[in-house]
Amino acid sequence: TMCVIGLSLMGAGLVLIGISEILFVLFVGLAFSGMALGLLMPTINEMVVSASDVNNRTVAVGGMTSVVFLGQFMSPVVSEPVKNITSYASSFIIFGFILFSMALYRKSKA
Question: Would the pTM of this model clear 0.85, i.e. be above it?
């Protein structure tokens, strides 16, 4: 449930950033994205810890941390071609809808 809420908030934040024409809407989108990150990070951490064996928890959490940093590294590699084909605003909207669809997928599996 928290994953669905977090992914939905992140999607809403990115869409708001993409459609913002005034600073207030941009700040609301950034706030949504920040709240989503605050929900998702501990939720994913708890999922990893609870899914791993007591003897392998440090490796599992280390792997999760590595994947988070790998995602931050790969973000411009993935988003730059989308931005080049469309625009900055459109790329935020596209990735926002991708996050919404991830939330719907996660909700259907719950």
Answer: yes
